[in-house]
Amino acid sequence: MHVVPVPAHIVPVPGVTWVLPPDAVIRSESADVGAYLAEALRLPLADDRSEAAIALVRSDDVDGDEGYALEVDADVIVVRARTDAGLFYGVQTLLQLLPPSAPFTVAGVRIADAPRFAYRGAMLDVARHFFGVEVVLRFIDELSRYKLNVLHLHLTDDQGWRIAVDKRPELARIGGATQVGGGTGGFFTADEYSRIVAYAAARHVTIVPEIDMPGHTNAALVSYPELNVDGAAPPAYTGVDVGFSTFAVHRETTYEFIGDVVEAVAALTPGPYLHIGGDEAQSTSTEDYLTFMRRVQPIVAATGKTVVGWHQIGAAPRIAGRIVQYWGRGPELDDETRAALSQGDRFVLSPADKVYLDMKYTADTPIGHDWAGYITTRTCYDWDPGTLLPAGADVLGVEAPLWTEFVTTTADIDLLVFPRLAAVAEVAWSPPVARDWDAFRGRLAAHGPRWTMRGVAFHPDPEIPWA
Ligand code: ACM
């Protein structure tokens, strides 16, 4: 059984094999998940349970909002869950149990499964290099196969602004027209962003939009010079430095601007979160940073969204429900993370030396950074989100970011994301007692041919005994 992430409980039933019958139909008590499975297997949906070779059944007996049970018998495969999300995850497990090509058989098994963490994410930086809708949808497809349920889109940075805002048209027109290395960039229209959101929702993935501020804002400053401290537009920036830009913190027009942007992004985003960045604001004084965050957090909260920020935001007074995204490197915690801990913030963990997918695997990796070290698949796997922060920390989950200073093509994304994201997915989903590196290596090996069939140019990390 090559399921990744490994289910919480999985017991083979010896001597039993399900074989796909020639006239197989699927019966589903969820129209959406049934349609997803029918399309994946190219099988028809039917109403009559007695005929079904695969049945997706709603059941209150299954624990958890995202939990599911899966039973493979000789004549039928039954997935049970309380929610559509649970059925969707059961379906992902089933798709992994099925062989990638005919004959379609599945060995008998009983699975009872539910995630360890509620927040299981990846991040794509579409600001440094722009990636269009189709690339993002493909990314959502892949991450949802591994039961990840959050895609954080880093939509704005010094090098580009990637989401159109009706009230502030120059953001897309000017700020969207650049990227690292001098390319033409791009941006999502409201319709395109909504298409991403809907596609993600159909795969039980929540989009978390990030508008990074007060630093990482050169593209906004070029578009609306009044946001700049001296009121003049800086040159567009297409390099890879950080820490040189800041919004004017003491001008009311800055907060009017942020209100317009946050309102527009929140209106397009059904998910509960809005990420305001807050990292590497090295051109904003500490006092100004605190002033800024005191103003901006309530602006976000007024839209009904939960504030998310990189852990530097921990220095600022907490707004209720806030989530702090930790991207540090141990063993010592920085002051801002300590401040967040003492304020009782919730955490999403993105330790840079474990899950930063823009780091090279080894010195030989053709693209990527190395400031947080080399990160092999095993590095992504061999850590415990339960012990990274001091006992008592409120950890909501795990997210693996892909920054794209050096990432320009889909093949570049594939190389850096796979197989490492599968390791992160198991860290986020599976209970510690079910996790084991040697067993994981063996299971992961079976995913290589599937990625190849789907055109995913994964990195053949030599730690994995690829099939
Ligand atoms: C970050 O890597 N600057 C959050």
Q: Keywords for this structure?
A:
467 residues; alpha/beta; Chitobiase, domain 2; TIM Barrel; 2 domains; eight-stranded parallel β-sheet; six-stranded mixed β-sheet; 31% helix; globular; binds acetamide
Short description, anyone?
This protein has helices at residues 31-41, 84-97, 133-145, 170-173, 190-202, 218-223, 252-268, 286-301, 335-343, 352-355, 377-381, 410-417, 420-429, 437-445, 447-453, and strands spanning 9-19, 26-28, 54-58, 68-72, 77-81, 105-113, 119-125, 150-154, 156-157, 160-161, 206-210, 273-275, 306-310, 323-326, 346-349, 394-402.
List the helices and strands and how they pair.
Layout: E1 9-19, E2 26-28, H1 31-41, E3 54-58, E4 68-72, E5 77-81, H2 84-97, E6 105-113, E7 119-125, H3 133-145, E8 150-154, E9 156-157, E10 160-161, H4 170-173, H5 190-202, E11 206-210, H6 218-223, H7 252-268, E12 273-275, H8 286-301, E13 306-310, E14 323-326, H9 335-343, E15 346-349, H10 352-355, H11 377-381, E16 394-402, H12 410-417, H13 420-429, H14 437-445, H15 447-453
Parallel strand pairs: 2-3, 3-5, 7-8, 7-16, 8-11, 12-13, 13-14, 14-15, 15-16
Antiparallel strand pairs: 1-6, 4-5, 4-6, 9-10
